[in-house]
Amino acid sequence: MKHIFLIGFMGCGKSTIxxxxxxxxxxxxxxxxxxxxxxxxxxxxxxxxxxxxxxxxDIETDLLKRLCEQEDAVVSxxxxxxxxxxxxxxxxAAGRIVLLTAKPETILExxxxxxxxxxxxxxxxxxxxxxxxxxxxxxxxxxxxxxxxTDGKSIEQICDEICNIKC
Length: 167
Ligand code: S3P
Fold this sequence. Notes:
56% helix
């Protein structure tokens, strides 16, 4: 099994890169968040509000388990998918894990007008993003087979880097 899992902080560009990379590699693209919304029939903010974050994490783990058993794909993971060790183990067994990184300032620019990320709602500032990124750093780094820094790079450059890694 050789899935490509794109991981990284919210707003680091996973979905955009997954879209381009999947067409470049001729693999299906899977958006974990989109699939969760579709399957649960409600937005992620509502899942958090009604059932709490641990329940959302259970849904995420369950989806990941199913995805790992399906045909190869480029999977754009939710930013918190690496918070559970079992998720990392499943991804490692099913393919390669590419961590996309970006500066907190870049992240803020990309997410600030969006209110569909419950983890950031009410905390749209560089300080909070930096702190959370720091807290999660060890999880991201433990999961990553490869790291691609995205600041100042075009979508094409980032995808080429990932394709080169793959070879
Ligand atoms: C989350 C990231 C989101 C989504 C949920 C929680 C997180 O995905 O799964 O809001 O904890 O980092 P994106 O990284 O695609 O925004």
